[in-house]
Amino acid sequence: MADDVLGRVVQRALSRRGETYEEEVRRLMEAGLAVMVRCGTSASPRVSDIVAAAGLSNDAFYRYFPSKGALVGALLEDGAQRLRSYLEHQMAKETTPEGRVRRWVEGVLTQARGEVAATTRAVMWNAPTAGSDAPYGRHFASGVLADLLVAPYAELGSGDPVAHARLSAHAVLGVLSDHVWAESAPDEAEREQIVAFCLAAARATAVRA
């Protein structure tokens, strides 16, 4: 048999297998998220609960995730990337750096409302107990979200846009986390205060060593 024919047969088989693997991972992640939300902060779901909800086996789970913590870590990473994409989309609607900063703040704070908050609370509660690599003491998305503030902060004259963006992200995500755990949401006055804080931080000078 010709090598090119062999190669095509192998590639088709690998492609089908890859599609199967992607589908199984998607099912496991969706099931894991659903079970965690259902359990809330009262109980940590077992791997057996997750695979049952996904309609898969323990072998399938451990094929992709060495532990429940690894699944939680994947869910946190996915959530961070989804939130980043949402904020990028919102910020792109604005033509001024002030407008982009406002969109960033408002977009972050929407995560304290409704089902989104319940989902975030459940996953964050499971993160330390599941042994994931989630960072302790800060919101899991702080790094990727801080990056979005660097450019508008530089436009606004920040003396150190990277450092000031990071500090602002820590502060705003800290407020968000407080609301998520308290099952509350910031009102308009608090949102405006946070926007004003971030704009002031964006115009701060660099601290000289």
Q: Which CATH architecture of the largest domain?
A: Orthogonal Bundle
Ranges where pLDDT stays below 50 over 5 or more residues in a row are none
Structural class: mainly alpha
> Rg from C-alpha positions?
21 Å
> Mean of the pLDDT scores?
86
Description:
The protein has 209 residues and is an all-alpha fold. The protein has 2 domains: 1-65, Arc Repressor Mutant, subunit A (Orthogonal Bundle); 68-209, Tetracycline Repressor, domain 2 (Orthogonal Bundle), CATH 1.10.357. 75% of the residues lie in helices and 0% in strands. It is built from 9 helices and no strands. It has helices at 3-39, 47-54, 58-64, 68-91, 97-109, 114-130, 142-155, 161-182, 188-202. α4 (68-91) runs antiparallel to α5, α4 runs antiparallel to α6 (114-130) and α7 crosses α8 (161-182). The longest helix is centred in the N-terminal third of the chain and has 37 residues, at 3-39. It is elongated.
Which key terms come to mind for this protein?
209 residues, Arc Repressor Mutant, subunit A, Tetracycline Repressor, domain 2, 2 domains, 75% helix, 0% strand
Layout of helices and strands:
Blueprint: H1 3-39, H2 47-54, H3 58-64, H4 68-91, H5 97-109, H6 114-130, H7 142-155, H8 161-182, H9 188-202
Helix pairs in contact: 1-2, 1-4, 1-6, 4-5, 4-6, 4-7, 5-7, 5-9, 7-8, 8-9
